[in-house]
Amino acid sequence: MVSPRATALLSSLLSAATKHKFVIDYSKPAADGVFDGADFEKFLHDRIKVEGKSGQLGENVKVVRDGNTKITVTSSIPFSKRYLKYLTKKFLKKNSLRDWIRVVASSKDNYQLRFYNIAGAGDDEDED
């Protein structure tokens, strides 16, 4: 029989070796020419913190741009999907795109950048 301490140690070692892979799909804004994928990739590379230090990703975190539609962030250390959303929103705000583009979780490990739906915004006038 395996002791509970050994089981806890084994599970902590396995969880430390897990890989996290997140994808950000920015194909719709890029198709309209308002979003620069290369600039976003550089922003993520410079801003992601590893052990409290920005820009020092090393072998722990990899940021890869797949063509002009997606960025894949792969991490061998604990990495939060929420942190990636935070950085994406920060990039949009910095480039004055936050009023037009939103970040939507399309699946468990994917985010998608979409335009706000403002088609019916002009129809809400008060009539006295």
Automatic annotation (TrEMBL):
InterPro entries on file: Ribosomal_eL22, Ribosomal_eL22_sf
Descriptive protein name: Ribosomal protein L22e
Keywords: Ribonucleoprotein, Ribosomal protein
An example Gene Ontology molecular-function term: structural constituent of ribosome
Gene Ontology CC annotation, any one: ribonucleoprotein complex
Single GO BP term: cytoplasmic translation
Recorded family membership: Belongs to the eukaryotic ribosomal protein eL22 family.
Top-level taxon: Eukaryota
Classification lineage: Eukaryota, Fungi, Dikarya, Basidiomycota, Agaricomycotina
